[in-house]
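User: Second chain of the day. Same drill as before.
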Amino acid sequence: MTGLTRRLMTAFFSLLPPVLHVVIALFLAVPLLLYPLLYFYQERLLFFPRSLLPAVKRTVEERYPHAVVRLTAADGTLLQGWLVNRSVGDHRWPLLIYWGGNAEEVSGFVLEEGSRWPGWAVMAVNYRGYGESGGQPG
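Assistant: Same format as last time:
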């Protein structure tokens, strides 16, 4: 900084009331403190894993016996879901695959939507950390 620029800045800031100094400092400090917090807590702010309630599990198993599906991901994580309206004999039905949305455990989808797709097999799988799927979301 040149001497003239420094003198102009000093003169400008000396004219500002002390309250404005605090406002400017907060205006600069809040983002500098907030952004690192958002970065380190982003997964907690974005993902809301839900576990499978025993009563819901029992209801799905009663309505759709032998519907549990377990898939192993490439990294070895076990993903759990349901397969309903399976193909029978030589007849093959098209397959609708549903991955639950954020904060959703897919058993409710199976109970509500499983029978609404006649002529289709429906497979609903939980993301990592949701329902009985292993791992962590993210």
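DSSP finds five helices and four strands in the chain.

User: Great, on to the next one.
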